[in-house]
Automatic annotation (TrEMBL):
Name of the molecule in the record: ABC transporter substrate-binding protein
Keyword Signal: yes
Keyword Secreted: no
Leader sequence segment: 1-19
Database matches in Pfam families: SBP_bac_8
PANTHER family on file: ARABINOSE-BINDING PROTEIN-RELATED (PTHR43649), DIACETYLCHITOBIOSE BINDING PROTEIN DASA (PTHR43649:SF12)
Organism: Paenibacillus athensensis
Keyword terms of this UniProt record: Signal
InterPro entries found in the cross-reference section: Bact_solute-bd_prot1, SBP
Amino acid sequence: MKKSLTTFMVVVSAGMVFTACSDSGSDSGSAPTPAAAQVNTAGYPIVKDKVTLKFVSPKNPLAPAFGDMTFFKNLEAQSNVHIEWNNIPSDGYQEKKNLLIATNDLPDAFYNAGFSDYDLTKLGSEGTIIPLETLIDQYMPNLKALLEKRPDLKAIVTAPDGHIYSLPYAEEMNLVNMPNQMFINKTWLDQLGLKMPTTLEEYHDVLKAFKEKNPNGKGTVIPLSFWFQGWCGNEGDLLGMFGAPDVSMDDHRIVKDGKVLYAVAIPEYKEAIAYFHKWYEEGLIDPEIATVDGEKLKAKGKTADETLGSFIWWEGPEIVGQDRMKDYALLPPLKNKDGNIVIGKTNYSEYSRDSFVITKTNKSPEVTARWADQLYEAKTGIQAHWGPIGEVYKEENGKLVNLPVPEGTTAGEYRIKVAPNGPLAVTKEQFGTLVDMEPRAKQRLDELQQYYFPYQVKENYPFVFLSADDLDKVNQIETQLKEYTKQMKAKWLMEGGVDAEWDSYLKKLDQIGLQDYLTIYQKAYDEFKKAGQ
């Protein structure tokens, strides 16, 4: 997965209070100049005399300071390069990152950078971050070989001006385009003599029974919860039952018959939100739903007494824990009122171009490039992605084999604690040859192939790189669109009123710039298809 589950690929938001976390015992002072560093272009160590680089990275609350991670200690021992980390809590990362850039208080590099395409083109053209293609050619043999073998990856990271400003990430597991699975409390179904629901109306009746019959005996049952507008575990497939499978909550772009649509501005969405408002009125949807995020959902799943009747997430144990998961079962996709199953397909890619950038203040870009290139060694990248040998893996006959997950934690939580992610590439041919797929990932893939993929819509919006001019226009529109549509979705879900306010809502979207936004993305989509990509 990308973005850790929680950020395996960093999807973070702005606006929280910032508290930085730096590792202790770091060497201070500026890094030596490249000439003084005597960079070895091959082999290890990278430098004879230790070099210190300063990196900024977001960090999940469950993760330790990066300087304390075994993975980075191993890299330092191999490379003789010390990283002085400024770990920013992920919830406040974008805000702090933007502040660092605005005040020119730049690190040597941003790791798990989380730079948007707009950031890359703007900061690249301004010189705040530097082009990397020459460094790749001269100091990054692992990445250079990968990009020669995979020109598609090179195309992904190449900006419209021809430069590469950020290093690629790849994880080819075929998991990210389906971010949601529904789970239901099977113990409660059996206790109440109910069958596994197969239709939306049967699901409604089960949730109503959970609400009214109090199966936990405490009066604290939450029939259904999910991550409202989350990147995973969201309401997208519920909306999809009405023909608006909006599972890409960070952009709301869907494609139908080659036409790019804004999923929260079509009649099917209006019908869906009016329908699920009735569920909210009946007490079937979490009363706190508008503020439920991933961490809050996990807390609700791990209360002393079971409270969740049903929930939506990437995988069940992350929410309720491995022991409690025995009470829950996967809820296969439900038929809608027409008897059809409609599953959305996200616009999330198995690839990204926001993993690592080097700034203009870096005095040792060659050292930095060689350090980052370590992560494109296959087994090193695997360990960055899932965790190091000795903690997550043992090596048998040249292959990394999973060790048991420590008791008292889930695989997802443990991964956050031991694997920093970053610039890396785990390609499909490595599974089964260099590394075993995580058991939970294999289980999820099997479930998706059996229950979800057969019903998934065929079209989604591709991973395109807009021109600098188009990115500038989109940047002026998109934030307002997201804020307004999220605000109105929460209002309509909890308070109702979508029928009365729909026309004024559409008018407001057009005033913000929705039609220009759609025109830009339609043009890019048509060009992408014309190029045969």
